[in-house]
Amino acid sequence: MKRPAYLAVHPASHHPVQSESVDLRTIADFGAACEAIAMPLQTNRTQVNGSRLFSTWEITRYLIPVDPVHLRRVLRQNPDLPQGKSRGEAGSKWFSLQEVRQLKAFFASTGTKARAYLPYRPPGLPPCSAVLANSTAESGKTTTCAHLAMAAAQDGYRVLAIDLDARGGLTRLMGAETGEEWQTVLPLVGRHYVEHLQMLNRLRLERGETPVPIEAGLERALGLRPSDLAQPTRWPGVDVIAAGPDLSAADLRIAGWRLQARTWKFWTSLASALTQDSLSDRYDLILFDTPPALGHLSMAGMAAAQALLVPLRARPQDLAETGRFMTMLGSAFGTVEEDEALAARAIGGDPARFSWEAVRAVLTRHDPARESTAAEAAQAALGSLLWSDRLPDSPFVTQTRAIYDTDYRETNRETYAAAREGVDAIYAAFKRLMVDSWQRAETVEPDTMSGAPHDG
Q1: Residues 239 and 188 in one domain
Q2: Which stretches make up the AAA domain (predicted)?
Q3: Is residue 387 assigned to a domain?
Q4: pLDDT tens-digit profile of 420-448?
Q5: How many domains, the chain?
Q6: Which domain holds residue 431?
Q7: What's the pLDDT score for residue 19?
Q8: Is 15 a member of any domain?
């Protein structure tokens, strides 16, 4: 009989090895080795300038509301338009997403006014913004965020995706370079802190007090704007402010800055950066992807967004964890409101109030065969707060692969269309929030409008 090996482990049979010391260099080498192994194992797909090609079937079904015959006729009549490349299927032409965007613009300027070739975007209004948050591991935040960014870009919007998670999942999925500390969002928070500390130091000097020294090198953040940190991705229409391992210390840095300036409202830092540096001419949508924790940086992202999206799995443990997260979120922002209310009463100012235009939950990696009971219970409990459409459990909808990044020839049209249907429905629900937000903003006087909403 073969017994388990652990029964044979005891001092008499075990030969101790020389003790080893594992330092931070070993940890770094471990991480670098894993990344180096993973890189050549990743799926290689057909790409043009980093983004895959789209067939005339996909374009006329999903991207431009025209008949395939009409599209081919327009291309023949307008040789200056992108003509695509012949690939595989008889008579089918394939186009890059940048070429698709050129075609959309052409049809918008020359096609029938009865069809919307370009998405609704009233001029002069700030971008819409949303943050995806949940402390539950594998809740689908990054997957949902990436799919929304890609869907919006395919629809014709210009997107800025801000990765607040030091693991950089969104950064990698979008094909961007992992950012070191000064390429992440942290300098925007640092800029806000330095501006506040400079104001406090001016007051200290007026009172004859010694100013608080500014951390060495941090003043360089004063010249940085979101557009300086945004880098293009392999998806035309999507830029990203990247994340990387250096961002893991962000909450500690912010906590230290808060100790130096206790009146500094760190939660307004990202909202301030996005409103002071007008992004209306560059972007239509800003998305924040947060880590699975509620820290200073996550709170700044949440306070900067108009909509709060909560991805979760339809499983009892995930529902329970999401409930605890939302309770914790309410408590954290509630504590800030209480503290600010005390300060406001002392100086006669307005108290802080946190609010979002919309809060929605979305079920991710949903398998109706296994999770229908939990999904129905969640829908009954949350009502309209939970979208009725689900992000499907599919090998084409994951944190490392997007359905929009998948060439349907890897499977077949029917399988591809079935996987895409649920994702498109989630984007449609999200787009309705965007359109509603802009329509409400159009009724507001220009001088009372702000960009991303925050406290106050």
Answers
A1: yes
A2: 133-316
A3: yes
A4: 999 999 999 999 999 999 999 888 755 44
A5: 2
A6: 128-448
A7: 53
A8: no
